[in-house]
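hey m, so remember when u said the tokens were messed up on ur end? i reran from scratch. heres the input so u can diff it against urs
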Amino acid sequence: MSLLQQINESISTIPKKYKEMKESELHKRVVTIKQELGDELFIPGHHYQKDNVIHYADARGDSLELAQRSAQTSASHIVFCGVHFMAETADILSSDTQKVYLPDLRAGCSMADMANIKQTERGFSILTDLLGPSIIPMTYVNSTAAIKSFVGTHNGATLTSSNAKSMLRWAFERGERILFLPDQHLGRNTAYELGVPLNQMGVWNPILEKLEYEGDLKDLKIILWKGHCSVHENFTLSNVSDIRKKHPNMKILVHPECSREVVSQSDDAGSTRYIIDTIEKAPSGSSWAIGTEMNLVNRLINQHPDKHIISLNPSMCPCLTMNRIDLPHLTWSLDCIYEGQPVNQIIVDKDTSKFAKIALERMLAKA
């Protein structure tokens, strides 16, 4: 049996009947179960989810915000409409009486998968041997529970795209250098905004186990993990040039997971929440090219017909892993809970959870 077959067999498979049901039937079933379970059920939905899924969310937001709100509810069943690391974070922060489920276990995150625990332990060991012990590991919340736990164990913390600058300042107060996991672009953009020059930033290649840096090691301040968001890396300087030519009065607003080159040539950059707030506050008649996930861009277009909004990359497609969560999987997940046979529960072991929570709490203490 191949590894792929083993993985597929380990995942609870959605019964065929759910894929054959009409959307109206699925809708009726979700509404019925939500009414039956009441406060026992909480459905958080990430901004990048499909419209016909996020429609049923009890809360919409970014990953950390949703995990926090899940933990604050009295619900015993949390059905997370997002990706795996988000459900892990919800399980870490929630109580022992709460259970977290992911409607489709195939909903992962390519960025989070670019830093596994063995690579991280090996890389950190090599780097500390090379540069000394004063390296503070910091991880984006878009990372696995194991990476969060590693950071918590080694005096580091988590961060979000909203608080990245304040958390890097926090880290620099505690060490000479920072290892930034797993998204090199957010790390580079944030450090640059803090005044760290590009020639004081290196890249750790976990595949080659190599530090990519041409300067004097004593000048190295930031070590960026060689990872990226597969969606945001697809926004290019060519996209920016096309907008400038075709729409010279249009403002370009991007997520800091985009490359340094794209961010530097855009008018503004910020977290998903920042992008949403900026568009909501923008004057009627204003024009925007947005560099972020397509489901959210399309939602902003529909919510703000008084503004001219387009995607920075017209060929962009929605995040494929986020789109694993669809209405049939959501309905199936709720049905299983209602019938007392829940599937796809996300459980972070106690040791991992302990230090991952420490990393998260160090960040939350700064909020």
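this time it looks ok to me. Residues 23-37 form the longest helix (15 residues). if urs says something different then somethings off w ur setup not the seq
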